[in-house]
Recover the amino acids of this structure.
């Protein structure tokens, strides 16, 4: 029985798997459909080409086969992985058998099944009943031509015309793919003579060789529970695991003579990638193939001659150039890769190396490659580097990639720039394995140079300094960029601590409305820039998004330092402030205004008007400050729209009448109120405008009817008249 024949960790041939009176290889119902010959990606042709081209005198291991034996069916190998390869080989053997007068019939079906039982072949496709019956009929009537009628089936196209081919078979993707595979196989072997066919078939099956040359390594899943878990992991991707399986025999055949342990090394890689596969999502689980394929891509990128070649490889779907990159090079990089991959980087808050990028098609991002590839180069250059030394090196480049654009691009002069490729060369500049030797390297950002110089200047307290800096890098305001603080410190770690603690105490928590008091205190100082200019926006901000605060720090560096050095508390700054000419004066003195502003945005004409926004958009303004006097959103009331500003005036349109009020200020004259019509002629006319004479207004020539007040010095008096006139209009 196979339960005794197949042992985990040992190699078996095709004839070992497909043999015995009652033995079967079962493709269970949890497996995916056969898909190696689907329309979008036919892998049967390349697979068969590989077998044809191989040196038939060499042994070959074709990868792992995962399975288990159910105690209730001890002769039936329940296949967990290897379905696509074994099915394809079974179809190849069947096609060869047709051409060679049943030479391989014993590998397709046993004598017992053929003559005494139910004519069930060794391969049991139990995904669904149609697949199961089709494979049985295919073996019986097409591959071995059991009766006279079967001789009429001349090629794969005739299968659908046979009397045993049911209409429902055409809806089964496994059956459609199997027929497509047979067509491909037949086209590949149609011009081969009998000797060539026998050579190929005997090589695959090993029937004339006491020690078959093609073997599989069997991995025993032990029981149904483990097996079903593996089914889910391996067989729900819907993608053929092809690239590496096709690559493997080519590589092994090329190097076996001078690298006798190549098969073991390949299996070592496959096993490692299986153990480190993506297990994060139940719905889209991975196999070892995804990780291994991404590793091979990294090998190509690592060996790229220049940035142009690097960029061409990034999205390339070309096969791995195994003839150009020797396997010993691949294997040595695998050892480095697995070492780098397995290190715990969490002490510096660095994410683990992981190819499982759901938003990047399962590939490493440009940011990840920027840290990964130089680190592999580092490990290759310094093979005795400790894990901690590797962590230090890796951290520098991963943190840089978090704030610096490291995407591949075409420069203005036409040159291609691949930052990850370019930065790999930095290892060649290193005079020691200590990353501190790069503290003055112009290949590093100034941020990283300064951090390294700080660590170097405090080398006796290195572990503490490194931890403190890596903690500070996590502050979302700075996002790894600490130069603005380091500039103040002259490499004195105690100074860095002092300033960073003060920053954390002021810009604390999520920096939302909880720091409104700080915002008010900042408005008491004349900065290079505050409020903060928002890129590509018409408004400014008192600081809300993290990048806005970073902009504040960098544009006001020395003044921020002075602010932090001051003995004045933020409360004292607010209480002691007395400059009523500051257009932000009301906001400084009364916290209610900022409390009502959601994201602390302002519009300003940079003179005497400030609009504090309730929400982000201008149409939702909360309050206008005109010469430090507040004009609330609905201060006019009635049917007057929200006022807005233009140059040195406020204006407000009526929602019903064709009326507009301009509220004008000129330093040499004071305030004037101008009410006029003609701006919105589609609205109701207002025929009693002349009655504003009662408020002391006089008629002016504006091209339309308009009435203006005399100059008013006092702002509150002008505001009261503004409201009185608006209320009078609404009363009519």
């Amino acid at each position: 029985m196979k339960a005794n024949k197949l042992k985990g960790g040992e190699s078996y041939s095709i004839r070992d798997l497909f043999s015995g009176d009652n033995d079967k290889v079962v493709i269970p119902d949890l497996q995916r459909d056969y898909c190696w010959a689907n329309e979008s990606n036919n892998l049967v042709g390349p697979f068969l080409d590989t077998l044809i081209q191989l040196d038939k005198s060499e042994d070959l291991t074709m990868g792992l086969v995962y399975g288990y034996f159910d105690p209730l069916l001890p002769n039936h190998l329940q296949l967990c992985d290897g379905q696509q390869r074994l099915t394809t080989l079974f179809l190849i053997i069947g096609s060869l058998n047709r051409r060679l007068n049943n030479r391989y019939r014993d590998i397709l079906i046993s004598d017992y099944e053929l003559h005494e039982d139910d004519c069930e072949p060794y391969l049991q496709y139990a995904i669904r009943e149609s697949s199961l019956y089709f494979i049985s009929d295919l073996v019986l009537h097409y591959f071995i031509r059991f009766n006279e009628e079967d001789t009429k089936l001349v090629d794969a196209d005739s299968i659908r015309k046979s009397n045993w081919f049911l209409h429902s078979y055409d809806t089964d993707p496994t059956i459609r793919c199997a027929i497509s595979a047979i067509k491909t196989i037949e086209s590949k072997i149609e011009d081969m003579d009998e000797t060539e066919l026998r050579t190929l078939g005997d090589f695959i099956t090993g029937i004339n060789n006491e020690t078959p040359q093609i073997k599989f390594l069997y991995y025993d899943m032990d029981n149904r529970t483990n097996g079903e878990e593996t089914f889910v992991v391996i067989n729900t991707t819907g993608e053929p695991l092809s690239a590496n399986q096709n690559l493997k025999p080519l590589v092994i055949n090329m190097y076996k003579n001078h690298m006798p342990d190549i098969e073991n090394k390949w299996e070592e890689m496959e096993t490692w990638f299986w153990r480190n596969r993506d297990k994060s999502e139940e719905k889209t689980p991975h196999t070892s193939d995804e990780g291994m394929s991404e590793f091979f891509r990294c090998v190509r990128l690592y060996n790229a001659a220049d940035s142009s070649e690097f960029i061409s490889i990034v999205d390339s779907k070309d096969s791995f150039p195994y003839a150009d990159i020797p396997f010993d090079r691949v294997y040595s990089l695998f050892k480095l890769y697995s070492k780098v991959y397995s290190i715990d980087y969490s002490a510096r808050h660095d994410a683990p190396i992981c190819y499982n990028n759901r938003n990047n098609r399962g590939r490493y991002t440009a940011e990840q490659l920027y840290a990964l590839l130089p680190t592999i180069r580092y490990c290759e250059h310094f093979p005795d580097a400790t894990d901690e030394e590797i962590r230090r090196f890796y951290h520098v480049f991963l943190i840089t990639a978090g704030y610096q654009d490291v995407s591949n691009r075409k420069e203005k002069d036409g040159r291609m720039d691949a930052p990850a490729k370019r930065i790999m060369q930095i290892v060649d500049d290193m005079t020691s394995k200590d990353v501190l030797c790069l503290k003055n390297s112009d290949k590093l950002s100034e941020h990283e140079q300064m951090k390294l110089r700080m660590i170097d200047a405090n080398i006796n307290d290195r572990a503490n300094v490194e931890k403190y800096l890596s903690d500070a890098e996590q502050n979302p305001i700075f996002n790894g960029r600490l130069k603005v603080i380091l500039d103040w410190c002259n490499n004195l770690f105690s100074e860095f601590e002092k300033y960073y603690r003060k920053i954390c105490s002021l810009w604390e928590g999520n920096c939302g409305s909880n720091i409104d008091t700080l915002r008010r205190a900042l408005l008491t100082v004349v900065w290079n820039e505050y409020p903060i200019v928002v890129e590509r926006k018409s408004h400014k901000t008192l600081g809300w998004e993290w990048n806005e605060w970073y902009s504040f720090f960098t544009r006001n560096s020395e003044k921020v330092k002075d602010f932090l050095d001051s003995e004045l508390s933020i409360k004292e700054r607010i209480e002691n402030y007395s400059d009523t000419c500051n257009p932000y004066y009301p906001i400084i003195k009364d916290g209610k205004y900022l409390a009502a502003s959601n994201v602390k945005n302002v519009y300003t004409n940079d003179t005497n008007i400030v609009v504090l926004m309730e929400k982000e958009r201008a149409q939702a303004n909360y309050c206008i400050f005109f010469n430090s006097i507040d004009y609330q959103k609905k201060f006019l009331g009635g049917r007057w729209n929200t006022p807005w500003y233009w140059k040195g005036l406020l204006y407000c349109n009526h929602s019903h009448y064709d009326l507009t009020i301009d509220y004008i200020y000129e330093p040499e004259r004071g305030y004037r109120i101008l009410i006029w019509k003609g701006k919105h002629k589609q609205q109701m006319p207002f025929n009693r405008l002349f009655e504003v004479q009662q408020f002391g207004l006089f008629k002016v020539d504006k091209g339309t009817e308009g009435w203006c007040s005399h100059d008013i010095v006092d702002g509150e008096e002008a505001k009261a008249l503004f409201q009185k006139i608006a209320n009078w209009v609404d009363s009519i």
Observations:
- Residues 388 and 539 are 47 Å apart (CA to CA).
- The chain is about 40% helix and 15% strand.
